[in-house]
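Notebook entry, structure prediction.
Reason for the run: the old model in the group folder had no record of what sequence produced it. Starting over properly, with the input documented here first.
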Amino acid sequence: MTDMGFIPDDKDLNKSFRPARDGDSPVPPDDESFFAGADPLAEYEDVSDAPNRLTETEDRQEMRDSTADESDAPDGRTVYEESLVEDAVAIAAAQKRDLDTSKPLLKITDLSVAFESSTGMVPAVREANLTIYPGQTVAIVGESGSGKSTTAAAIIGLLPGTGKVTGGSIEFDGEDLAKLGPKDWVKYRGSEIGMVPQDPMTNLNPVWRIGSQVKEALTANNVVPRSERGQRVADLLEEAGLPDAPRRAKQYPHEFSGGMRQRALIAIGLAAHPKLLIADEPTSALDVTVQKRILNHLATMTAEMGTAVLFITHDLGLAAERAEQLIVMHRGRVVESGAALDILQNPQHPYTQRLVAAAPSLASKRIISAHERGVQTTEEELTGTGAGATSTEEIVRVENLVKEFEVRGAKGEEKILRAVNDVTFGVRTGTTMAIVGESGSGKSTVANIILNLLDPTSGKVFLRGHDLATLGRKELFDLRRTLQVVFQNPYGSLDPMYSVFRIVEEPLRVHGVGNKKERLARVAELLDLVSLPRSAMRRYPNELSGGQRQRVAIARALALKPEVVVLDEAVSALDVLVQNQSLNLLNDLQAELDLTYLFITHDLAVVRLIADDVVVMENGKVVEAASSEQLFANPKQPYTQELISAVPGHSIPLGIG
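New structure, fully documented this time:
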C-alpha cells in the first residue's frame, strides 16, 4: 500500500519512516510508528475503533463546556484588564526561566526585505524597527500588503519564494538571525521561536492524525524522551483546551471544527516552550465567541510559560485588547509604535487615524458610548434610506421555516439533522435586517431558502405577500430579478475566466435585458455606482484586489435592479479599511436605490454599524429578535450577551464620554 503520509525533510524525522512495501498495513509497526505500542495515544489498528465525529452543534457545545471558565476573566475583570495581569504573570514566568527581562529578547533594526521579480527587487519591508522583551506581548497591525506577515516570516526564516533580507538585523537572544544559514535555523525554529499560522486547514496535514502532528514537533525539537512523547501529546492538547485529548489525538483535521484545529496548532507552536511565539492572524477566520476563547487560552498559556508573543492582525481593536505595545505598519514601513491605549486614544499618523476610525469593533463601542450619553444617532451609524425608524411594510416574511438534512452513514435519530427549526421573522422594506449567529447556527441555510436555492422541509417564505412555494418555473426565473445575492468570497464566486464586463453583463444577457450597446452602457453605469473605473471592464478577477472584487460582485447583484439583496458574510473576509469602504458603499447604494438588505454575519460589531433590525440564531432557532438599538442596549438572552461581549475591543477604555 502506498504511504500517503507527508515525509518531513528533517533527517531526524526521516529515520522514523521507511519506504512502503507490499503487504504493509495502513498503520506502521509499533517500533516505527510515532505512537509506540505502550503509548496511550497508539494509532488505531481498526478503523471501527475510531471515535465518532461530532456534529457541529455537539462539537461547539463540548468546546463551550470545557472552556466555560475562559469566557470571562476572573474577579470580574474585563479582557483588557486581564491582559494587563497576564503581562505581569508572563514577565515573572520569564524571570523564572532565567531570562533577563531588562534586555530585549528580539530586536529588529532597520530591517529590509525584498522579493525578486522579472523587473528587479520589489521591497516588501522598508527599514522596520521593533523590540520585544521576555514575556511581553506586541502586536503588528496593518492591512494586507503592509509587510506585517513578511516581517514575521523573516524572524523565523520562512520567507516565501524569492524573498530575502536585504538590509538590517534581527537580533534574537544575542544572535543575528539575518545571518543564519539553512542548517543553523534548526536550533531556533520550534524550540526557541514557535509559530501559530493563520489557516489551520492548510497548515495541518490532512492525512495525519492530530496526535501525530503534535508528536512531530516534540520529535523534531527533542523535547522529551521517546517513551514520554505520547503522554506529552495528551498533556499539550489538554493544555491547549481540547477536551478528551487521547480521543482527539486519534482524529484527523477534517474531524475538528475551525476552533479546535486552531487549538491543535497552538499546541504544536508551544510544544517546545519557545521563548517567542509568532501568532499570525490566528483567529481571523473564526467566530467571535470562538476567537475570544482561543485568545484567552493562548494568553494564559503563554503567560504561564513566560513566552513573549508577536501578534499579527489587521484588527486594531483586537490588537489593542490583547497587546501592551502596538506596531502600525503601512506599505512596508513602521509608521507608528507605542503603548496600545495611547495609540487608540491619540493616534498620530494619518494611516493610524484611519485604522482607528474604520475598525468596526472600535466604531461599535463609540456608538454604544454615544447612545449612553443620550446621543440619538451618530455619524458612524450607516442608516441607509433612513427607513429604519418609519418603515412598517414587510417585503420578505418567513414563517415557521424548517430545514432538515439527512446525515450520511448515521442511524436512528442522528440520521436527521435539523439545521433550521421553526424560524419566523419579517424584513421591512428599505431597511437592513441582520441574521447573526456562529457557524452552524442555520443563518446561511435560511438565506439560501429565501433565495430559493434550497427547498424548505416545511414552512413558508413570502415576497410581497406571494408564497414562493406556489410559483412556477417562469415566475421563479423572474424572481431572480427581485432577489439577488453577494457571497462571502468574491474570488470564489466570480468566474476567473470572465472579464469584469462579462461578469457584470451576464445577468443582463441571461434575462434578455437590452441589446449589446445598452448592456455596455448599463455595465459602465454599474461600475460608476460601485466606484470602479470603467477601464476595469477589461480586467479579470485575479488582477483586482479583494475589495475591488467585492465591488464587482455588488455591481453584478445590482445589474437587474433588485429590491432585496442578500449579503452572505459579504465583508467578513476584507481588511478593516476595505471593509469600512464596502459598508459605506452599501449604505450609499441603499439610500440611492431604496434597497432592502438581508445581512448574514457572525460579527456583531458590523451589525451595530449597518443593521436596523437583528435576528439572533443559535442551533437553528431564533433566540432573540429586536431592533439594533434595543438589542445592544438590553440583550435578554445569555447567548446574545455572549456574542456582544466577544466583540474585539469591547472592553477597551477609549477615554470617550
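Summary: The first helix runs from residue 11 to 14.
The old model has been moved to the deprecated folder.
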